[in-house]
Amino acid sequence: MKPKYVKEFFLFPDIAIMCLIFLISFGFLIPNLTSVGPWIALVIGMAAYSAAEYFIHRFLFHIKTPKNPFFLKLLKRLHYDHHASPNDLHLLFLPLWYSLPNMAIAGAAAYLISSSLVITMAFIDGVILFLLFYEWKHFIAHRPVTPLSPWGRWMKKVHLWHHFKNENYWYGVTNPIFDFALGTFEDQKNVELSQTARNLEQRGNKNA
Predict the structure, then answer these.
(1) What 8-state DSSP symbol labels residue 208?
(2) What are the residue boundaries of the Fatty acid hydroxylase domain, all occurrences included (predicted)?
(3) What is the DSSP string of 165-198?
């Protein structure tokens, strides 16, 4: 891994701010890690984001092209434009205006369930940690970098199938568990080439 790519990742504003939020929050959490509850909440937060990675990608980011100009603009920034320009660094990461409100909602739900600030903080730290892992894997998939492990190289290849072969398969970026479970993982040799993988707005257009 060339240092310039590590620097490129961690100095990108959205990533740098999210890392700072995690470090501050985890710093406050450390004194409470002597009990098992916060560790369980941390793992649940990571698992929750792993599930969200798939379901949001499939059912929100690939929703049928909205006619409302405002929602279309949002989706273009969140995902449609990323398919059009998959290697554009400024379209690669989730913007803070999307991530932070969603984390606030998740944190409010965690607090309503647990009535504990410590458990809530641990849950949110788990969410942020997996978000950063997701962003790193996504970054590696789209930069001229060869992952170190066979697993990493395979996941990069699978993600690029989603972009360049068919946008209706391979939604998982960090893992294929939900793709296998929900029928969106196929051998790419058996999947037809989609004419709209690079232009999600044109799905449903007979001329696409």
Answers:
(1) -
(2) 43-184
(3) T-TTS---SS--HHHHHHT----GGGSPPPTTTT
Distance CA 128, CA 32 (A): 18
Burial class (CB in 10 A: 0-12, 13-18, 19+), 204: exposed
Q: Categorise residue 126: left if φ over 0, alpha if ψ from -120 to 50, beta otherwise.
A: alpha
Measured CA to CA, the distance from residue 28 to residue 25 in angstroms comes to 5
Q: pLDDT tens for residues 118-144?
A: 999 999 999 999 999 999 999 999 999
Tokens of 114: 């647990």
Rounded distance between C-alpha atoms, residue 181 and residue 186, angstroms: 11
What does the pLDDT look like over 64-122, one tens digit per residue?
999 999 999 999 999 999 999 999 999 999 999 999 999 999 999 999 999 999 999 99
Is 208's pLDDT higher than 50? Answer: no
Q: Which burial class, exposed, middle or buried, applies to 7 when counting CB atoms under 10 A from its CB (0-12, 13-18, 19+)?
A: exposed
The secondary structure element, H or E, covering residue 67 is none
List the structure tokens of 40.
């369980």
Asked if residues 139 and 34 have their Cβ atoms less than 8 Å apart, the reply is: no
58/46 Cα distance (integer angstroms): 19
| CA dist., res. 65 & res. 75, Å (int) | 9
Closest among 206, 149, 155, 168 to 62, alpha carbons compared: 168
Hey, what amino acid is at 195?
Answer: Q
